[in-house]
Amino acid sequence: MDNPGGDSAHLKSFVLRSGRMTPAQTRSYETGHYLIPYTGEPADFAASFGNNKPVTVEIGFGMGRATAEIAAANPDKNYVGIEVFKAGIGKLIWEAETRGLLNIRIIEHDAVDVVQKMIAPVSAAAFHIFFPDPWPKKRHHKRRLIQKPFAELLASRLCPGAYVYFVSDWEEYAQSALEVFSAVPALTNPHGGFAPPLEWRVQTKFEKKGLDKNHLVREIYMERVKT
Hints:
By secondary structure, the protein is an alpha/beta fold. It has eight helices and seven strands.
């Protein structure tokens, strides 16, 4: 398996959080429906979904409401969510079951490992990264997900013309992420800087919290070069 970015394997995309699961979330989680086991080998998403529709990978979907709404509005696309928060996984499974969504799958594991080992090179139609942990203290910046090794890894997994869509309400992190993505030769920025909000993106719980604190929401939309 190739290892673009090198040090990305040492980065962790999450901090384990505790959360009380409702009975409905617990039942949904325990069914195992919609879950793809972490194997450390390239996943066969066509087999998992039963079709060859393009696959969008969302890193850290939280409680999954926005994920479910986007998937419901785009039945022509498949969505793979990566998350370790069990309550959120249970909630998204419940949403998918309730809505009858067939285009959602979930991998319960660290996103860096999943992208590196289970997403084949030049295979993903998109990566969504909405409101990742900003690690605001300077001494913790090295824990941020969007750093050069991981940005290069994401680019290597995108199909030509595919995109990575990053959103944050933490201005300094957004500026840093824009610099990191802009320095990846395989990515191009059709907007030249921060992107305007895309109409189809659903507001998340973290976004609402940021807006309530008068945070400025920044969006980054990068495309994999087509040549």
